[in-house]
């Protein structure tokens, strides 16, 4: 009987972890699109966003 309770407890912890992870990924995917994500490896590390380039005076 103790094994069943332990299994249910661990299962609930795992379900909670995966639901939280799914919701976190879902929130992040709403902020960026798949086309932007596919181009991220091509981005240079020191690049500034396009909307900030005109403010530096260069």
Task: Describe the structure in brief.
The protein has 58 residues and is mostly helical.
What would your notes on this structure say?
This protein has two helices and no strands. With 58 residues, it is mainly α.
* Rg estimate, integer Å: 21 Å
| Gap from first CA to last CA | 72 Å
Proportion in β-strands: under 5%
Low-confidence blocks of residues: none
Helix content: 55-70%
The DSSP helix count reads: 2
Overall pLDDT score: 77
Topology diagram in text:
Elements: H1 2-31, H2 34-39
Tag the structure with descriptive keywords:
rod-shaped; 58 residues; mainly alpha; 2 helices; single chain
């Amino acid at each position: 009987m103790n094994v069943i309770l332990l299994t249910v407890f661990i299962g609930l912890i795992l379900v909670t972890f995966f639901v939280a992870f799914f919701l976190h990924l879902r929130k992040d995917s709403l902020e960026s699109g798949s086309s932007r994500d596919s181009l991220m490896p091509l981005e240079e590390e020191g690049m500034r966003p396009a909307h900030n380039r005109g403010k530096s005076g260069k």
